[in-house]
Amino acid sequence: MKPSYGDDSPIAAFATAPGKSALTLIRCSGKGAIELAASVFSKPNELKLAAGSTLVHGWVVKKPHPCGFLTAASRGEPSPLCGSVEYTMLPKAKESRQDNCEKIDEVLVSVFRAPKSYTGEDSIDISCHGGICTGTAVMEALKACGFRTALPGEFTFRAFMNGKLDLTRSESVMELVSAKTDVGRSNAIQRLSGLLEEEINSIKKLLVEVLAGAELYLDYSEDEISAEPGEKDGILPGQNQARRALIQLQKLKAAWNSQRIYQEGITTVIAGKPNAGKSSLFNYLLKEDRSIVTEIPGTTRDWIEAWVSIEGIPVRLIDTAGLRESTDSVEALGVQRTRELLDNAEIILYLIDGTCGISGEDKAFLCKYSGSEQGVLPLWNKADLAPRPQHETKMIALSVLTGEGIAELSRAIVTAIQAQAGKPEDQSNAGQNAISGNAANENTGYGNAAWEAAPGSMRQKNLIDTACTALQEALSLAEQREPLDLIAPLLREAVNALGEITGEVSNADILEEMFSKFCVGK
Questions:
Q1: Distance separating alpha carbons of residues 121 and 157, to the nearest angstrom
Q2: Superfamily grouping for domain 264-427
Q3: Residues near 426 by beta carbon (within 8 Å), at least 6 away in sequence
Q4: 22-58: per-residue pLDDT in tens?
Q5: pTM for the whole thing?
Q6: CATH of domain 11-166
């Protein structure tokens, strides 16, 4: 039978990736989880009686068979990981004592009693030695005694269902795991700390009060209610309050673009003619030699990519084949792939070889992409050998050899990213800090605007859009003095959308779809 996200059966999963390491952590949770784990622990009574937030030292052992003890023999077909195990029956021991069992690994067990645990259930974390074989053997012992493998995100799902986390905090857990830069991490931490939940709840509180006033007018005649001046005859009670809620929603809506950039990153393509210095710039920004660099034009035949952090912003940097017509079929294919990447790029760094000057091909490229949606940054490369012409003020003079222009290039990339996020280029230093997480705040990882709430997922953004649209329509109808029975359903739609963001209003299918995208162990 397929396991369900809604049950409370004991579950176990790796909380760390199995492999060569000092420690491996295995997380267990669910009804009777501590008692069940005690059946394969060398000190069962000590574990059963352990208080919450304590550690118990001992051994994970092979659970005794009802008819005798099971011991591993080295015979049998080897497995891909650490060899299969063939079991041999030994004579039944008196009382089936745990200390006579075969030891699997020496461990520390962290005990968490409900409701003071991550999931709100009885839980344990088993710290065993690292390595694939050791962790796998411990997991097999747990499954043999009754644990099942946890579904993706099932621990966090249970934390949500048991009221330990709302949906915004639950989603921030995976944001934290997937963060590409320190700024992205700090944004996820803010949501995990409840900043977005508090903002959504404050907006919802305003709207609930407005909705309650509107429904009160619908339930009773005006003669039975003392209306505030200017808020009768079909005009929405608490209209100014609804406007304040709309302003807060619009602020959240506008914050999504910058949050998306920190989560998904910006695709930046390095382009130019052969031998313009694309691969050298790629290696310089990456701080390692990933692309082959030679003086022979056309060395790069295919594109190569890597993630870099530019002032706290994750950038997917792509080095491409030089743009030129070629009779070489392999190079021509690389050039074609470059053009496809350029069409999907968000920012283009176009290098011009300063020692050769601006060619007709360079001018044609810049003319083609200057009016496109992509942000194009023209770079005058090899400035140490050929200084940039004074009239080419829009080009950044660059030299990978001396480092000239690299700082200016980083600032230009951040400005282009701000344009992608819909931010004005002449914004204040506070706005600059909010998106770049610059050096003034690098010790904490927070920009000046880090304490402002913002949505962290497309689901949250779409629900904010829904609430915004419904509230705008409700206010528009109120200004036209339309009946409250047309306005109240729109207010209710906005309130429900906000409740769905935090999980106060939820759908089982949506929840399962959301948590199934988490990694196992979370």
A1: 12
A2: P-loop containing nucleotide triphosphate hydrolases (3.40.50.300)
A3: none
A4: 999 999 999 999 999 999 999 999 999 999 999 999 9
A5: 0.70
A6: 3.30.1360.120
